[in-house]
Amino acid sequence: MKVTISDVAKLAGVSTATVSHTINNTRYVSSETKEKVYRAIAELGYTPDASARSFRTGKKKIIGFIVPDIANKFFATMIESVEKYLSANGYQLIIANTRENMEREETNVRLLTAGMVDGLLVASTMEDFQRFDALIPTGFPVVLVDRIFDTKKFSSVCVSNFQPIYRSVCRLAAKGDRRIGIIGGLPRLSSTKERISAYRQAMADCALPEEEGLIQYGDSMEKSAQGCLDRLLERGCDAIIVCQGLMASETIIYLHQKGIQLSRDIDLVSFVDYDSEVYTLYADQMDSIIQPVEELGQAAGEQILKRVEDPEAPIFEKVLTSAYKPYSQPGSWSHSDR
Amino acid sequence: MKVTISDVAKLAGVSTATVSHTINNTRYVSSETKEKVYRAIAELGYTPDASARSFRTGKKKIIGFIVPDIANKFFATMIESVEKYLSANGYQLIIANTRENMEREETNVRLLTAGMVDGLLVASTMEDFQRFDALIPTGFPVVLVDRIFDTKKFSSVCVSNFQPIYRSVCRLAAKGDRRIGIIGGLPRLSSTKERISAYRQAMADCALPEEEGLIQYGDSMEKSAQGCLDRLLERGCDAIIVCQGLMASETIIYLHQKGIQLSRDIDLVSFVDYDSEVYTLYADQMDSIIQPVEELGQAAGEQILKRVEDPEAPIFEKVLTSAYKPYSQPGSWSHSDR
DNA sequence: GTGAAAGCGCTAACAC
DNA sequence: GTGTTAGCGCTTTCAC
């Protein structure tokens, strides 16, 4: 049968309080008593029951992370770095996968916030802030990751999206490209909106013709880039900006298959949000906007623990900066935001 | 403040027992009473507390998955498919990442088995069965995934490793290759051992010279393939078998960078354990051993829930079969085990 | 068809 | 320096 704290107490000849306190270092216990307790624990093979403890203390030492697509290496890498930070601080990570589906996100948020985790990281696929907000119990610690809402009610950690895109368009324009296409992610996401608006503004500022057909939206999941690319090629683009790593990889491959050569036949700017083998192969033939994925994960971990430990802490918005790597200078990296 | 079951009971004018039973459909409740209960729940915004429930019932509805490397797409894809199966059955998945480190695996197993999860899936990085076994509380539901031990104490789900390698060597030999090198994963893992032993046996059966230097071991993590490849190239291999997807991608890229062309300068056989863009690019220039990753995940989910629901169920070993795709016939797929 | 109440294993306030 | 004990929110047995 299960061995409980009172079995230990009995065998050690002390009270349950003493056992609890020795285990948790939560008040002074003489070293002889400690000794007896530890001996009893060892003898019985006692392990404190995590459920009972969570129930009693209200702390579960678990953080939930709601992710749009765990098989996307961008998120997988981020998860790894979140997990690293959390486990170093005595927390476990629970993953839920929404596959960019709002209903799945709703279900998972409800499940996790109902006493399963102490706090929640969310890379939300929702468009509507109200709908998201309604799911979160009052005062529940939440940190938005990578994707935010206009209403600044929750803390967030994300990457600056405007500047690198704006800069890309300007660089392409200076090179002589006129018809610059862009492949964005899901139109409802903040990250996509920011990037597209940067594109629009830069196109206008560079006096390049705007044309709705030059803007294509994918879903950032497998096999979505190809259709976008086809439509852009039909319109005779001389340059393409791809706003997300997985779609960028697919774009590169598809161009390769069509025999269209990077930087000779077409200019490419890619978001690089993970260590892709494709990226390694073609890094010297395109501009790269390199996302600080690890830092994003670590910052997310920091922020959520901060909120869990002090739910009254003020809202905090952290914006990280991508690195910009122009293709012509393989060795040179520069920060896009300064 | 937190709204509890007795708040609901009070407002609905019934007992807590009735509220509990209506929520859980666990005994007959008249429809008028149900009605009152649901109204009260809605009015108060009541959500049952998962901790309290787990504590009381001993069931947490959480499965743990201990994974060697979550940023490896092989595991990320498997996680996704496990998660899919579990969530369809009312369970959540908790991930722990060991980075192929035995100490981290120990810590995580101990943490998770201490009342945090109902059952555990483990792709263990351990060599020593005793050491692993010692971590698992008696009777705790465990399913080994992808990597097993000689001692058949736990249920397992894995992929047949022997046949595809044996077949690869024979095919290469028939083609005229004499110096066939192989890049394996961590030498301590069952999967690696099986693959290397298949290689050895096939080399002997094909009357090819065995040479220890033709066998190289990587760690299946990023940047480990390059060193292995260098050593194999030094020995003048005319063919190389790579036993793991990530290392296979890296091998392909490295060969490409060196200007060594697949199937012209060197023959390649790759394990393909996820949807890689590199694989898409080079699929027609090499033999592929395609791992049934999704099925592996689903089977793992099935097995662990079976054990959780009936811990006395007999040990079950499921062995899935890879598909073998020879490079010469892009359209033809064949099962390697029949 | 419903209610009363015990108790899951632990922590922590209070007592000495 | 240590013990006693209430009670966290829920499920479930027993009773009517």
Describe the structure.
The structure is a homodimer. Chain A is elongated, with a radius of gyration of 25 Å. The first copy, chain A, has 3 domains: about 1-45, 434 Repressor (Amino-terminal Domain) (Orthogonal Bundle), CATH 1.10.260.40; about 60-160 and about 295-320 and about 335-338, Response regulator (Rossmann fold, 3-Layer(aba) Sandwich); about 160-290, Response regulator (Rossmann fold, 3-Layer(aba) Sandwich), CATH 3.40.50.2300. Chain A is α/β, with parallel strands linked by helices and about 350 residues long. Chain A has 13 helices and 13 strands. In chain A, about 50% of the residues are buried. The first copy, chain A, starts with a helix and ends with a strand. In chain A, helix 1 (about 5-10) crosses helix 2 (about 15-25). Chains A and B meet through helix 4, helix 5, strand 2, helix 6 and helix 11 of A and helix 4, helix 5, strand 2, helix 6 and helix 11 of B. Strand 2 of chain A pairs antiparallel with strand 2 (about 90-95) of chain B, so a sheet runs across the interface. Chain A binds a DNA duplex (16 and 16 nucleotides) through helix 2 and helix 4.
